[in-house]
Amino acid sequence: MEVKESSRKKWFDRIIRVLIIVLVFVGVGLYIYAEDYYRPSLTAEEALTEGEGIAYEEIGGDLVFTPENPEGGVVIYPGGRVSERAYGYLGRKIASLGYKTVILKAPFKLSILSNYAAEDYVADDQIQDWVIIGHSLGGVSASRYVSRNPEKIRGLILLAAYPDGSTDLSVSTFKVFSLVGDKDLIIDYDKLSEAQERLPKTTYGQIIRGGNHSSFANYGTQDGDSLADIGYEEQQQFILDAVVEAFK
């Protein structure tokens, strides 16, 4: 009997040791994965401050710009594996137009793990009208959110992005904008084309000459993307124009 008990204990100890080793490797793997993302440029970081009539704060990791007496609100879903801070320059520019602007921080830099994070801000009764922006993979989350919460939405702006197959926005009444750079080598053009049937027929599509995938934010050039022929400020001006148009 004692031999059997001893044998069981040895097997139990071995299993525990194996589990500990597995957990260590998983933990290290998750840490490496979590740290492998695109960092913000100095321009983006320097924009993360208050001034010129715009307040700035970080709420649970989300970046929030609030101008005096905001006329509406904008929420940005970042692209996959891109730091939310890389959208700091864009966020401040939008806020300077008079709109409260929120850049969401996503778990593991993947917004699809928090598709409905915008609701924490859109539910604010002090601001009745909102525009939702999604860049790249963030466009999937942005599309999912507005499809289920259209009440206070004035517009959806997709930056090198499109709704996934389970999201149908074809009968939506808010304005939809689709902006894509003609030098974008990241986006799947076949899927982009196929997704048009899930967008309203009134969707405004804009091909940005000289624009790429990466310059909708400020984090350098993404692996596999081409260099843009225009500056990030020029490319992001198309976003600002779409925001203004969405609120009209």
Task: Describe what this molecule looks like in 3D.
There is one protein chain. This protein is α/β, with parallel strands linked by helices and 248 residues long. It folds into two domains: 1-36; 40-246, Alpha/Beta hydrolase fold, catalytic domain (Rossmann fold, 3-Layer(aba) Sandwich), CATH 3.40.50. Helix content is 33%, strand content 19%. It is built from seven helices and eight strands; from the N terminus they run H-H-E-E-E-H-E-H-E-H-E-E-H-E-H. The chain has an eight-stranded mixed sheet. Strand 5, helix 5 (138-148) and strand 6 (153-159) form a beta-alpha-beta unit. The radius of gyration is 22 Å and the shape is globular.
Count of DSSP H/I helices: 7
The computed structural class is alpha/beta
* Topology as a string of helices (H) and strands (E): HHEEEHEHEHEEHEH
Alpha carbon gyration radius: 22 Å
Q: Please, what is the CATH homologous superfamily of the largest domain?
A: Alpha/Beta hydrolase fold, catalytic domain
Kindly give the count of domains. Answer: 2
Q: Which residues sit in consecutive blocks of at least 5 with pLDDT less than 50?
A: 24-34
Helicity level: 25-40%
Strands ordered across the widest β-sheet:
1-2-4-3-5-6-7-8
Q: CATH class of the largest domain, anyone?
A: Alpha Beta
Mean pLDDT metric:
91
Instruction: Please count the beta strands (DSSP E, at least 2 residues each).
Output: 8
For the termini, the CA-CA separation is 83 Å
The gross shape turns out to be globular
CATH topology of the largest domain: Rossmann fold
Strand content: 15-25%
CATH architecture of the largest domain: 3-Layer(aba) Sandwich
Largest sheet: 8 strands, mixed
